[in-house]
TrEMBL record:
UniProt cross-references to PROSITE patterns, sorted A to Z: PAS
Top-level taxonomic group: Bacteria
Protein keywords: Hydrolase
Gene Ontology molecular function terms on file: phosphatase activity
Taxonomic path: Bacteria, Bacillati, Actinomycetota, Actinomycetes, Kitasatosporales
Region entry Disordered, spans: 1-27
UniProt domain PAS: residue ranges: 194-230
Protein name: Regulatory protein
NCBIfam families per UniProt: sensory_box
InterPro entries, per the entry: Bact_Sigma-Reg, GAF, GAF-like_dom_sf, HATPase_C_sf, HATPase_dom, PAS, PAS-like_dom_sf, PAS_4
Pfam families xref list: GAF, GAF_3, HATPase_c_2, PAS_4, SpoIIE
Organism field: Streptomyces pristinaespiralis (strain ATCC 25486 / DSM 40338 / CBS 914.69 / JCM 4507 / KCC S-0507 / NBRC 13074 / NRRL 2958 / 5647)
Length: 909
C-alpha cells in the first residue's frame, strides 16, 4: 500500500530543499514558516492541496507517509498519518472545502499543518483549559487525537484560512541502541565547542571516589579535592539508567557495564553522560571500578563495538558476562534474541540453541530465535507450558535432559532434529515467566547441573533486557496496527463495489501480513464456498496458486473466531511437486517439461509454509473466508494473526453492509469509547487489569461498563455493571451511572448511600430508565501488603476471591438490583485480600456464555479461576477471556467486562 501515485488533480506536491543547496528558488514556499515553528530551523518542506472529495483523505495519508519516510522519520510516521487522516477528514468532508497540507522538517522532529477555507467554522473548545466541549459530537475528535499523540499542537486563523497544526518530536533513542548514518563531508560534520573530554573516575569497593582527572574537572566543574572521598551516587542525578533496572550502585559492582546516567555539575545543571565501567583489582587484591565518562552525544567514543565470536578458538568461557555483557543490545528484539542464542550455544559449546518467549497469559511459549535448527520451520511456532499434548513442562525450572531418546517429546522443539541432550532454563522478571532458553547437543550426556547453573546465571542477566525489548516491540506493533486499521477501514468503507472490496482485502494483506492471500465467498446458507480472489506478492505465481487452490476443497465455513490452520494447500503442493518430479524422471528433460516442473516446484515452495483461515462473519452469519499463507515452512506471529482477525471483521462488514451502516458503526464505536474510562490509575501495592469486549460485529454501544478511580488519598473506588438493553437508552444509563458513582463517592458517601442515590436517579428517568446490576466497592491498600475492600453487590454476578492455596469463594452476598424499587436497604461487606490473593469481577456476558444447552456459569468460572494461582492480574484476566472464547464456537452475543485485582506477593531480595 506504500506505492501510490501522487495527489489527484487539484493539488501538487512540492519538495523545497534547505536554503543554500543551490537548487533554485523554492516553489510555493511560505515566508515566515521558520518563525512559526518558534524553536527549530526548517531544513525541508513538502506541500500538497486536496480537493473536497472523500478519496482525498486516503491520498493525503499516502502523501504524508511517503514524505516522512523519505525524510527518514519512520519513528513518527504512524502517529502523523493518524492525525493527518482526522484533520483532512474535517476539512474535505465536514467543512466541505479543499485542504492544504504542509509538512515541515526540522532537526528534532516534524510539523504538519492542515488548512481549510472555512475560517468561520467554530473549533469545539471551551474554557482556559481548551477541553473538548462535547465528546459525543462528530467534530473535534481530530483535536482529541492531537492532544493525545502530538508533542505540541494549535489552531491559527487568517481571514481566508483556518490552520490546525501539530508537532511530533523524534523519540529519544533508548540506552544501548546502535545507529549509523551516511558518510558526510567534513563541512557538514557537527562542530565541537572544544576537544572531546573523557572523564576518568576511580571508585573503591565502598562506592567512594578515590581519583578524579582533569577532564572530569572541566566537564563537571568539581576540583579533585571537592569530590574525592564522596560516594559517586551523591553526584548522580538519576538513580538508574532509564528503562533499565540496574542502578548505579549495582552497576559499579558489575565486572563490565555500559550505559547512560546524569551527573549534577557544580553549577547545579545535570549533564547526561555515557559511561563505561570496568572492575579491576590492585596489587593488594582490593577491587575498584574505573569509570570513563563522556557527554551522552559523544557516546561513540566509548561504546563497545559489536564483535563476532572467534570461531577458531577452543576456549570455553566460564563467565556468563563474557558471553552476554560487554556491548550494547541491538535496536530490534529479533537481533537481541538471535545474538543471545548464538552466544548461549558458544558458551556451552553446543550444537544448537533456542529461545522462546511466553505469551501474556503465560500458557504458551512462542519460538522466537534458534541457531543450529531448521529455524524457518520453527519460527513463531507455539507450544503449551503446563498441559496438553506436546507440552513444554520444563519451562518454569532449569532442566537437564541427558538423553532425549529416553524421554521422547520432552522438548517438542527438538523432535526429529538429531539432538540428544539439552539444558533449558527459564527467563523470569520479578518472578514472572517471560521465556525459556535452551542449548542442545547431538551427543548424549553432554550437560550437567553445572552447565545449567551457568546458563541460568546468564539468563538472569539477559531476562530484563529481553522483556524490555519485547514490550518496546509490542508497543511499536500496536501503533503500526492502529495506523493500518485506520487506513484499512477507510478504504473498505469507501466502496460498495463487491469486486473492488475483494481486491482491497487481498491487497491490504499482501505483503503486509502474509505472502499470499485467497478470499472465498458464500452467497447464502445453502451455497458452497467459492474461490473469488487470489493474490501473491510475486505476480508470476498467481496463476499457479489459483490453479492449485481450484483443485482442492475449500475450507469449511466454521464461524469460530480467530485463525485456524489449514493444511490442505501445503499437502496438495507437495503432492504436485512429487508428481512433477516423477514425470521429469520418466519423460526426460525437454525444455517445455522442465519449465512446467520449475513452475510447479515454485508454487509448492510458495505455499509450503503455514496457511490459516479466518472466517468473514457479518450479522452472525459466515459470508466467506480469508485465507493467508506463508512460504517455506514459515509460521505466523500471534500479533499478525490478531491484526488479521481485526481486518477480517472489517472486511466482512464491507462485503455485507452498506455505507450508511458502516458510518453508523464508526459513530457507535466512538460513543462507546467515550462511555468507558480513558485510563486506569496506578495503585501502589495492587495489580489491576481490565478487559472489555462489546458483542456484535457492529460493536453497538453496550450496556456493560467498568470504572476505577481515586476517591481520596489511599482510597480507590471501583465498579462493574450491566445495564439492561443496548443502544442510546442503555448508553444514557451507563453514562449516568459512571459519573454519578465518581461524584457521590468523592463527596464522602458510603457504598450503600452511593447506590441508593444512584437508584433514585435512574428511577427519575421515567420511561428512559433501565434496570442496572452493579458491583461497587472501595479499596484501601495497607502498609502490611494486604488490601481492604468494602463491596456492595446489587443484583450483579458475585465477585470471586482466589486465595494462594487455590481455593475460590464468593466475596459478597447478593442484594437487589437498581432501577426497580424506590426504597432499597443495601449494606456493604468487608473483604481483606492477603498477598497473592485475587479478586475477579465479571459481567453476565462471561458467566452466561453458551454452547447449545450448556452454559459456563458460576461454577465453570470458578474452575477457570482455580488454575490461575500465582498469575499476575493481567494473566488472570487473559486466561478467563480465553476460556470464555473457547467455550463456544459461535461469536459472543453479549458484552463482556472482566476486572481482576491482585495483591502481589512481596519480593525477596
Amino acid at each position: 500500500m506504500s506505492n501510490r501515485p501522487g495527489p489527484p488533480g487539484g493539488g501538487g506536491v512540492v519538495i523545497v530543499p534547505p536554503p543554500g543547496t543551490g537548487r533554485g528558488r523554492p516553489i510555493m514556499a511560505e515566508p515566515g514558516v521558520e518563525t512559526r515553528t518558534r524553536s527549530s530551523v526548517i531544513t525541508a518542506r513538502a506541500a500538497a492541496s486536496f480537493d473536497p472529495l472523500g478519496r482525498s483523505v486516503a491520498t493525503a495519508r499516502a502523501f504524508v507517509r511517503d514524505t516522512l519516510q523519505g525524510w527518514g522519520y519512520s519513528d513518527v510516521v504512524d502517529d502523523a498519518v493518524v492525525l493527518t487522516s482526522e484533520l483532512v477528514t474535517n476539512a474535505v468532508v465536514h467543512a466541505g472545502t479543499s485542504a492544504d497540507v504542509l509538512c515541515l522538517r526540522s532537526e528534532d522532529g516534524v510539523r504538519v499543518e492542515v488548512a481549510d477555507r472555512y475560517p468561520e467554522r467554530e473549533v469545539p473548545i471551551q474554557g482556559a483549559g481548551r477541553a473538548i466541549a462535547n465528546l459525543d459530537s462528530e467534530n473535534g475528535r481530530g483535536l482529541l487525537l492531537c492532544a493525545a499523540l502530538a508533542s505540541r499542537w494549535g489552531v491559527e486563523y487568517t481571514p481566508t484560512h483556518k490552520t490546525v497544526w501539530f508537532q511530533l518530536d523524534l523519540p529519544q533513542r533508548p540506552v544501548g541502541t546502535r545507529s549509523a548514518g551516511p558518510v558526510l563531508p567534513t563541512a557538514m560534520l557537527p562542530v565541537a565547542e572544544e576537544r572531546v573530554r573523557v572523564a576518568v573516575a576511580q571508585i573503591d569497593s565502598t562506592g567512594t571516589i578515590s581519583a578524579w582527572n582533569e577532564d572530569a574537572e572541566r566537564l563537571f566543574g568539581y576540583a579533585a579535592d571537592q569530590v574525592v572521598g564522596k560516594p559517586l551516587t551523591d553526584l548522580a542525578a538519576w538513580p538508574q539508567t532509564p528503562g533499565i533496572g540496574t542502578g548505579i550502585a549495582e552497576a559499579l559492582r558489575l565486572s563490565r557495564w555500559e550505559g547512560s546516567y546524569g551527573i549534577r555539575g557544580l553549577d547545579g545543571r545535570v549533564l547526561p553522560v555515557y559511561a563505561s565501567h570496568l572492575r579491576v583489582r590492585d596489587a593488594d587484591g582490593e577491587p575498584s571500578t574505573v569509570c570513563l565518562l563522556v557527554r551522552d552525544d559523544e557516546r561513540a567514543v566509548l561504546q563497545t563495538p559489536q564483535r563476532a565470536p572467534d570461531s577458531g578458538a577452543e576456549h570455553r568461557s566460564t563467565d556468563p558476562f563474557e558471553v552476554f555483557i560487554g556491548s550494547p543490545a541491538p535496536d530490534d528484539l529479533d537481533g537481541l534474541l538471535q545474538r543471545t542464542v548464538e552466544r548461549a550455544r558458544d558458551m556451552l559449546d553446543g550444537d544448537a540453541a533456542f529461545l522462546l518467549l511466553a505469551t501474556d497469559d503465560e500458557t504458551e511459549l512462542e519460538v522466537r530465535a534458534t541457531t543450529g535448527l531448521p529455524s524457518a520451520r520453527q519460527r513463531f511456532a507455539r507450544v503449551p507450558v503446563e498441559a496438553g499434548a506436546g507440552r513444554y513442562g520444563s519451562a518454569r525450572m532449569p532442566a537437564v535432559h541427558e538423553d532425549l531418546t529416553a524421554v521422547p517429546g520432552a522438548v517438542p522443539l527438538l523432535n526429529s532434529t538429531g539432538m540428544r541432550s539439552v539444558v533449558t532454563v527459564p527467563l523470569k522478571v520479578e518472578g514472572r515467566l517471560t521465556g525459556s532458553l535452551g542449548v542442545a547437543a547431538e551427543s548424549a550426556g553432554r550437560y550437567s547441573n553445572e552447565e545449567a547453573l551457568r546458563l541460568q546465571f546468564a539468563a538472569d542477566r539477559i531476562a530484563l533486557a529481553v522483556e524490555s525489548a519485547r514490550l518496546g516491540e509490542l508497543e511499536r506493533l500496536r501503533r503500526g496496527s492502529l495506523s493500518f486499521l485506520v487506513e484499512a477501514s477507510d478504504l473498505l468503507a469507501g466502496t460498495l463495489d463487491r469486486d473492488q472490496t475483494l481486491a482491497l482485502m487481498a491487497q491490504m494483506t499482501v505483503p503486509t501480513l502474509a505472502t499470499w492471500c485467497a478470499v472465498y465467498t458464500i452467497a447464502d446458507q445453502s451455497s458452497e464456498p467459492y474461490l473469488s480472489y487470489v493474490l501473491h506478492e510475486d505476480e508470476e505465481r498467481i496463476d499457479g496458486l489459483k490453479a492449485l487452490l481450484s483443485k482442492i476443497d475449500p475450507p469449511d465455513p466454521v464461524p469460530t473466531p480467530g485463525a485456524r490452520v489449514w493444511n490442505a494447500p501445503a499437502e496438495a503442493a507437495q503432492r504436485a511437486a512429487l508428481l512433477a518430479s516423477k514425470r521429469e524422471l520418466g519423460l526426460g528433460s525437454t525444455p517445455p517439461v522442465s519449465s512446467g516442473i520449475g513452475t510447479t516446484l515454485a508454487t509448492a515452495a510458495a505455499v509450503g509454509g503455514e496457511t490459516v483461515v479466518l472466517p468473514l462473519v457479518a450479522r452472525n452469519r459466515v459470508i466467506g473466508m480469508l485465507t493467508l499463507g506463508k512460504p517455506s515452512d514459515d509460521h505466523f506471529r500471534q500479533e499478525i494473526l490478531e491484526l488479521a482477525e481485526d481486518l477480517s471483521r472489517r472486511a466482512a462488514l464491507a462485503l455485507d453492509n452498506s455505507r450508511l451502516y458502516s458510518e453508523r458503526v464508526a459513530i457507535s464505536q466512538s460513543l462507546q469509547r467515550s462511555l468507558l474510562p480513558p485510563e486506569l490509575p496506578l495503585i501502589e501495592g495492587v495489580e489491576v487489569e481490565v478487559i472489555y469486549r462489546a458483542a456484535g460485529e457492529g460493536n453497538e454501544v453496550g450496556g456493560d461498563f467498568y470504572d476505577l478511580f481515586p476517591i481520596r488519598d489511599g482510597a480507590y473506588g471501583f465498579a462493574i455493571g450491566d445495564v439492561c438493553g443496548t443502544g442510546p437508552e442503555a448508553a444514557a444509563v451507563t453514562g449516568l451511572a459512571r459519573h454519578a458513582l465518581r461524584l457521590l463517592a468523592r463527596e464522602g458517601f458510603t457504598g450503600p448511600a452511593v447506590l441508593e442515590r444512584l437508584n433514585a436517579a435512574i428511577l427519575d428517568e421515567g420511561a428512559r430508565s433501565r434496570f442496572l446490576t452493579l458491583l461497587y466497592g472501595e479499596l484501601w491498600p495497607q502498609e502490611d501488603g494486604s488490601a481492604i475492600l468494602k463491596v456492595v453487590c446489587a443484583g450483579h454476578p458475585l465477585p470471586l476471591r482466589l486465595r494462594q492455596d487455590g481455593t475460590v469463594e464468593p466475596a459478597a452476598e447478593p442484594q437487589p438490583l437498581l432501577g426497580v424499587m424506590e426504597d432499597l436497604e443495601l449494606y456493604e461487606q468487608m473483604v481483606t485480600l492477603d498477598p497473592g490473593d485475587v479478586l475477579l469481577c465479571v459481567t453476565d456476558g462471561v458467566t452466561e456464555r453458551r454452547e447449545g444447552t450448556r452454559m459456563l456459569g458460576d461454577d465453570g468460572l470458578s474452575d477457570v479461576l482455580t488454575t490461575c494461582t500465582g498469575l499476575t492480574a493481567g494473566a488472570v484476566a487473559a486466561r478467563v477471556l480465553r476460556a470464555v472464547e473457547r467455550f463456544a464456537a459461535e461469536p459472543a452475543s453479549d458484552d463482556m467486562a472482566i476486572l481482576a485485582m491482585r495483591v502481589p506477593e512481596p519480593h525477596n531480595s
